[in-house]
Specification:
Layout lengths: L1 H5 L31 E4 L5 E2 L4 H8 L3 E9 L31 E9 L4 E5 L6 H12 L3 H11 L37 E4 L5 E3 L12 H9 L3 E4 L12 E3 L4 E3 L4 H6 L26 E8 L2 E8 L2 E12 L2 E13 L2
Antiparallel strand pairs: 1-2, 1-3, 3-4, 4-5, 6-7, 6-8, 8-9, 9-10, 11-12, 12-13, 13-14
């Protein structure tokens, strides 16, 4: 314990913007399920297998690690149950593939290098800083998991050509953390913050009356201020924020979004996601190119183009984590605008 206290200054408490690599070694293919488990550097939050953790210690001089070991739980009936070949391309149905992932017992220890001194976790004897740091590492979404989630949601966004030299007006606008409303109407959902002048305006109009009143688009047409971020999608790590570029007509990445938000007094570290995303997806039906997809509350508007004609499909969307089922609500054809 004295050795741990002597190295307490090397232990960092993860912040929301930190990426936690706790699924796989950064050098090899070792995971917590490998024989030696995985060691997470409690300063850099990088993960290392047993063969490479000493190498990291020599390079970084970070001595404190969280040792994660996962061992598969035995299934009592696994050896007695005859193996059946699936007859259906289905999951969780009779004749299909089993839907249950194997369960694992997880153990945690604090390990101090180079002696590989091991301390149990959890333990009330550990310094409070260590307990808090380890708890946050355990509860945090791993960097690999975040990347997997992002791949489910949408294609990789391009970096906007307007982001790095974006003009921001010194007009004294301070955006509150809650209670947003469109500056030109009473809409309180589907709101976009223009990153040049701080105007909060509603999004595109949907033919069935949902969505916004097009005030954000009209504001761009009048001012040519290029970038807006959707309020309600800004989270502490900023990875899920929806930034839209009007001249590029696409959802884009803003590498210095934190700087742009702070210009209007927005403390993004305390914000939570309360709104859905705008996605650009691949073509679906034959000869119908999917132009865009926007989510307004529980309704989704899909815009498709064929032979210079625009089709709109509105569906009811019920989310269950990443997977969602959609029910056909209506289908209407309109002219291109």
């Amino acid at each position: 314990m004295d050795l741990l206290r002597a190295n307490l200054h090397k232990v960092r408490i993860p912040e929301p913007t930190n990426r936690i690599h706790k699924d796989e070694c950064c050098v090899s293919f070792d995971t917590p399920r490998s024989e030696g488990g995985l060691y997470v550097d409690m300063n850099s939050f990088l993960g290392f297998g047993r063969e490479h953790v000493a190498w990291n210690f020599e390079k970084s001089e970070n001595p404190v690690y969280l040792h994660i070991v996962q061992r598969r739980k035995p299934e009592p009936d696994e050896t007695d149950r005859p193996l059946k070949k699936p007859t259906l391309l289905a999951i969780g149905m009779e004749g299909g593939f089993g839907e249950q992932e194997p369960e694992y017992d997880v153990t945690y220890k604090i390990v101090i290098l180079p002696e590989f001194l091991s301390l149990p976790f959890p333990s009330v004897d550990l310094p409070e800083k260590v307990r808090l740091a380890v708890d946050k590492v355990i509860l945090a979404e791993s960097a690999d998991r975040k990347q997997q989630l992002a791949s489910w949601v949408a294609d990789k966004k391009i970096i906007s050509a307007h982001a790095m030299d974006l003009q921001q007006l010194d007009n004294g606008v301070i955006v509150p953390p809650t209670g947003w409303k469109c500056s030109k109407c009473d809409k309180t959902e589907n709101l976009w913050l223009n990153l040049t002048d701080g105007m909060i305006l509603c999004g595109r109009w949907v033919w069935d009356g949902t969505g916004g009143n097009n005030h954000a688009v009209e504001h761009y047409q009048q001012t040519k201020y290029p970038l807006a971020v959707k309020l309600g999608t800004i989270t502490a790590d900023l990875e899920g924020a929806d930034v839209y570029s009007y001249p590029e007509d696409d959802s884009v990445e803003d590498p210095i979004l934190a700087q742009h938000l702070s210009h209007f007094g927005i403390d993004f570290s305390s914000l939570q996601k309360v709104s859905c995303h705008l996605f650009v997806m691949a073509p679906i039906w034959d000869n119908l190119a999917l132009h865009s997809l926007e989510i307004y509350s529980s309704l989704v508007q899909i815009k498709l183009i064929r032979s210079q004609q625009t089709y709109y499909l509105t569906v009811d969307c019920r989310f269950t984590e990443l997977l969602f089922s959609v029910e056909l609500f209506s289908f209407r054809r309109r002219s291109v605008f």
